[in-house]
Design goal:
This protein is of the alpha/beta class and 362 residues long. The protein has 12 helices and 14 strands. It folds into 2 domains: 59 residues, Orthogonal Bundle (DNA polymerase, domain 1); 286 residues, TIM Barrel. The strands form 3 sheets. A 10-stranded mixed β-sheet has the order 3-4-5-6-9-10-11-12-13-14, covered by helices on one side. Helix 1 packs across helix 2 and helix 11 packs parallel to helix 12.
Length: 362
């Protein structure tokens, strides 16, 4: 049996036609699955009994099961440990953000694309865990719909502190959980297209962000997808020597090649790139590093997210001092490069950037 979330609307339509069911049933099924949040085929009241039987014999709905959860002390962050059908586990996070200078209150979910990660960034708990397998598109979609259904039922308004005016529904999806999304390219893109469908879950493409540590061929391929998602590139250093010490993939795709790919992506899509920069005390946070980064990114359509490193069990890195972060940001400003310091969420329950890895925090 297969998770029906693995199928696009077109694949469902083809399947029904192949098995002598009316093609128009595909649109009905799609609405039940993605708008009505139905978790049981028998709840699809206007679907024929033979089709319900066919679906029950061949498919199930959803391939993740929450087995544990934990809420941060400030009640802004909810982290789930999901069990998959083969017994593997992944973590995902929902964050409730208050309004800030330019954004309204919002809910953001951070989802996983792989069990573990093969790229081995030295400050990242997922990279320290190693790689097990890719997630299917259905397993990716299932994480999102699980949170969507809880939110629609008012669950998060009960267990989390509500911002002054809580955003109705989940606003943003970020592929920044466990794994490298572009290493699982086909399943990631398929999941995005399913979630983006305006007759279904209807998550806006501009509210979906895919993060990559810098897989150059996939960045170039993504530029041709004709889908207006956000791209976040984990750069973490301004030169090859420094970057190769913490981001091993830099040896395959050095920083000059990565920046060239980013320029091409911007040229083709006319969309801003978000550069993620994890600040490691004494490693990549000096004014010299900031100066090099400013020169590297000058005149690029971009925004830099500065992220003080979060603690992980197998990392010896420490977060930069507050004054050093301010100096780093000011130097970037002198090159007219906009930047923000990432708002921290759920650090003490290992729900922050770089901390997801089937932890024992629950």
């Amino acid at each position: 049996m297969e998770d029906i979330y693995n199928l696009t609307k077109e694949q469902i339509s083809e399947l029904l036609e192949k098995n002598s069911f009316p093609k128009y049933r595909a649109s009905q099924l799609w609405r039940y699955l993605y708008k009505n949040d139905v978790n049981n085929f028998e709840e699809m009241s206007n679907i024929s009994t033979p089709l319900i039987h066919f679906l029950k014999m061949n498919f199930f709905i959803g391939s993740v099961k929450e087995i544990r959860n934990i809420i941060s002390k400030d009640k802004s962050t909810y982290k789930s440990l999901f069990s998959l059908k083969d017994g593997q586990n992944v973590e995902s996070v929902l964050m409730n953000y208050p309004s800030d200078d330019h954004r309204k209150p919002r809910k953001t979910i951070c989802i996983s694309s792989q069990v573990g990660c093969a790229l081995g960034c030295t400050f990242c708990a997922t990279g320290q865990q190693g790689f097990t397998r890719h997630l299917s598109s259905g397993e990716i979609v299932s994480q999102v719909l699980y949170y969507k259904q809880l939110d629609n039922n008012g669950f998060f308004d009960q267990v989390l502190d509500k911002p002054e005016k809580s955003y109705k529904g989940i606003k943003n999806i970020v592929f920044m959980g466990m794994g490298e999304p572009l290493a699982n390219y086909e399943n990631t893109i398929k999941a995005i297209r399913i979630l983006n469908d305006d007759k279904g879950a209807n998550f806006g493409a501009r509210n979906i962000t895919v993060s990559t540590v810098g897989l150059v061929p996939q960045i170039l391929k993504l530029a041709d997808e004709k889908i207006q998602i956000n791209l976040a590139v984990s750069i973490h250093a301004p030169d090859n020597q420094t970057r190769s010490q913490t981001v091993p993939i830099n040896k395959r795709y050095p920083i000059e090649m990565l920046i060239d790919a980013c320029r091409e992506y911007i040229r083709k899509t006319n969309r801003k790139i978000f550069f993620e920069y994890v600040l490691l005390k004494g490693q990549n946070d000096t004014l010299d590093h900031a100066n090099k980064l400013g020169i590297l990114l000058k005149n690029l359509l971009c925004h830099v997210n500065l992220i003080p490193v979060n603690p992980t069990s197998k990392s010896d890195f420490f977060r930069s001092e507050t004054e050093d972060i301010k100096s780093f940001q000011n130097k970037l400003s002198s090159y007219a490069i906009p930047s923000t310091v990432r708002m921290e969420k759920g650090i003490e329950v290992s729900a922050g950037c770089g901390q997801l890895a089937n932890s024992n925090d629950y």
